[in-house]
Amino acid sequence: MTSTFSRSPGRWLGALILPVLLLVTACTADTEPAATSAADPPQNTRPSPFADCTDLTTAPPSATPTRPAGSATGGQQLPKVALPCFTGAENVSLDQVRGPVVINVWASWCPPCREELPAFQRLSERADGRFQVIGVNSRDRRDGAQSIGEDFGVRFPMLYDQGDSVQQAVGRNVIPMTLFVDADGRIRHTDVSGALDDARLAELVRTHLGVTVTA
After folding, report:
1. How many angstroms separate the CA atoms of 138 and 159, rounded?
2. Residues 24/69, Cβ–Cβ less than 8 Å
3. Beta-bridge partners for 187
4. DSSP states of 152-190 as a string?
5. Residue 46: predicted pLDDT
6. For 39-49, what is each residue's pLDDT tens digit?
7. What element of type H or E holds 144?
8. Which of 92, 102, 111, 158 has a 20 to 30 Å separation from 181 between CA atoms?
């Protein structure tokens, strides 16, 4: 009697290979999860570690509305770039954010970004209502940013930029990038020097925003 294998070797071989192909395909598909559209508020899978963005369009309560003494006039205006708040609230347009404000553009996969985030959290705690500190999570996975916020104790408001619209708008395609913006909404300084520590942040805030904070 002829065995099943001898009658249908191709069918037997196909049955053996198919599960292997399916396994490889599943792993490949899971490598790059579908990105969230920048136009839609990101969906929350667990509570956001970051503050909401409802107060970003209101001037800091103790802000000084004048330009720092001796600072140059001019400066690029904050761009009209609308981004969703990480908490899933309505979009916030950067040109509507009321300064003075320090804006940190970062990503979880960027080592100097991770290094400097705790210093920005401490800066936000020392602002004492004189300026705002906000983040823009750029070109990142939402779960990566979520984990960094939880692990590093980052609590200041966070906008979510699935692409790199902020970098394109200011003409600096690099991260980390920090914008120092005065009360008139003008960018007084763009820092792309790498990870900033407490002392350097205090110096930059004093120089470009005219506010003294402890290092």
Report:
1. 9
2. no
3. 76, 181
4. HT--S-EEEESS-HHHHHHT---SSEEEEE-TTSEEEEE
5. 77
6. 444 455 678 88
7. helix 142-152
8. 111
Convert the pLDDT of each residue in 161-183 to its tens digit.
988 999 999 999 899 999 999 99
Alpha carbon distance 100, 182 (integer Å): 4
- Tell me which residue of 46, 25, 159 sits closest to 96, measured CA to CA: 159
Is 78:94 a contact under the CB 8 Å cutoff?
yes
Decide: helix, strand or coil at residue 101. Answer: strand
CA 111/CA 93 separation, integer angstroms: 28
Rounded Cα distance between 2 and 24, Å, is 34
pLDDT, residue 17, reads 40
Per-residue pLDDT, 88: 84
Bridge partners of residue 104, in order along the sequence: 135, 178
Residue 142 CA, distance from chain mean position: 9
- Spatial strand order in the sheet of 177-181: 76-77, 186-191, 177-181, 101-106, 132-138, 158-161
Omega before 33 within 30 of 0, i.e. cis: no
pTM: 0.76
Please name the amino acid found at residue 95.
D
Rounded Cα distance between 201 and 215, Å, is 8
Closest CA to 83 of 153, 143, 175, 162: 162
Tokens of 142: 């939402």
The residue written with tokens 């503050």 in the block is 51
Q: What is the 3-state secondary structure (H, E, C) of 113-130?
A: HHHHHHHHHHHHHHCCCC
